[in-house]
Specification:
alpha+beta; Chloramphenicol Acetyltransferase; seven-stranded mixed sheet; four-stranded antiparallel sheet; 10 helices; 19 strands; 32% helix; 23% strand
Length: 425
């Protein structure tokens, strides 16, 4: 007895399309239950789709470089008890006597060719995975023309190089006198001539992050506003509430206070809680308040999102921060954990430094950077006092926000953090 089961793309409701980056099996493969079949990639996460049961791969509906959406077919499996294989290998008398071409042999040949095709695609995708972002087909096409893909500007999402991009690159060089195409061309010097070197490839998460950051930096004109905030009273309140939060299973840090203050500022200045539309002709204002938190992991930087911050208490936020950070470091975040952000906070206070220029988490229009707090002398009510000061760095998209609005925003944030009791209301 056997049955067919189609494995489809799931948990992609919030994506228009995602990329197929790996096909891990080929037609005819015998697989085990929970064995990974296909790997998909969104802007910030990778998802593997496993087999529900042991069986045989009947057909594959996608190839590396394809785009899929929720519900699209990925792989068709034949779920069966693997028996009578000897009988299958022996042709019946009917097949022997049949003068027509053997359909089983033809189909086996096709499957063999298809298996080679998928194997080649996977091998090609694995080679130089730290280089230009392109499908195996585009890589083979560029290789045939002798084009170095690292020099081709990709026009697709995340800088992916298309066949048309390679063609335009070739045409540009042909039309320029004295130029030529060569795979050996390299704009970098040979560093080894100066001493010992070692090339270490970036993992997939860092590659995707690099492309996303490059896109954000080149699309959005960044401006950064700096401010120092007196958090002396806030720190006193945090220490008083620390044990109460611990009794509820939460570690109360500075971050929940900053999140609450940031939301109040987003409510006061709604342009910061927006994104530009596609033709940059209007702002899309969001009526919800979700804050992204940059988390450093062994694999690279990820930005999970805490939802509905305006509706939650400090201790609730503290618990969620602990949980989401743990998921991030254990590599258990799903795409839904990293969607729907309104503004991002990146906290480098635990590592040091005073001010920096954080890159906007596009398509958001602003990001808040936090550095390490320090003791400083401040004139307060005519007296010089030592106060605990927190450096803030606010980067914003100058297309959506002008300088005056940014100053008003960070000043409001400063005042709210200085007046800790306003955050309790």
């Amino acid at each position: 007895m056997s049955s067919e089961k189609v494995i489809t793309a799931t948990e992609l409701e919030d994506f228009d399309e995602v990329d197929v980056v790996e096909v891990l099996v080929a037609p005819g493969d015998k697989i085990e239950a929970n064995q990974s079949l296909v790997t998909l990639e969104s802007d910030k996460a990778m998802m593997e789709f496993p087999a529900p049961d042991a069986g045989i791969v009947k057909s594959i509906a996608v190839t590396v470089g394809d785009k899929v959406k929720q519900g699209d077919a990925l792989v068709t499996l034949t779920i069966e008890q693997l028996k009578n294989e000897t009988a299958k290998a022996t042709p019946s008398q009917e097949h022997v006597d049949n003068k027509e071409p053997n359909k089983n042999e033809s189909q086996a040949k096709d499957n063999s060719e298809q298996q080679k095709k998928y194997s080649l695609a996977n091998e090609t995708a694995a080679i130089e995975n730290d280089k230009a972002y392109a499908s195996p087909a585009v890589r083979r096409y560029a290789n045939e023309l002798g084009v170095n893909l690292d020099e081709v500007v990709g026009s697709a999402k995340q800088g992916r190089v298309l066949k048309s991009d390679v063609q335009q690159h070739v045409q540009k060089h042909i039309s320029s006198p004295g130029t030529h195409i060569s795979k050996s061309e390299n704009v970098l010097p040979d560093f080894s001539q100066f001493g010992e070197v070692e090339e270490k490839g970036l993992n997939k998460l860092k590659q995707v992050s690099a492309q996303h950051l490059h896109h954000a930096w080149t699309v959005a004109p960044h401006v950064t506003q700096f401010e120092d905030v007196d958090i002396t009273e806030l720190e006193k309140a945090r220490k008083q509430l620390k044990q109460r939060a611990a009794d509820q299973g939460a570690k109360l840090t500075l971050l929940p206070f900053v999140m609450k203050a940031l939301v109040k500022c987003l409510q006061e200045y709604p342009d910061f809680n927006s994104s530009l539309n596609k033709d940059v002709s209007a702002l899309i204002h969001k009526k919800y308040y979700n804050i992204g938190i940059a988390v450093d992991t062994e694999r690279g930087l990820v930005v999970p999102v805490i939802k509905d911050v305006d509706k939650k208490k400090l201790t609730t936020l503290a618990k969620e921060l602990m949980d989401i950070s743990s998921l991030a470091r254990d590599n258990k975040l799903t795409p839904k954990h990293m969607q729907g952000g309104c503004m991002t906070i990146t906290n480098l206070g635990g590592f040091g430094g005073q001010h920096f220029t954080p890159i906007i988490n596009y398509p958001e229009v602003a990001i808040l950077g936090i550095s390490r707090s320090r003791q400083g002398l401040v004139k307060k009510e005519g007296n010089i006092e030592e106060r605990l000061m927190l450096p803030l760095s606010l980067s914003y998209d100058h297309r959506a926000i002008d300088g005056v609005a940014a100053v008003k925003f960070i000043t409001s944030l400063k005042n709210r953090l200085s007046d800790v009791w306003s955050l309790m209301i």
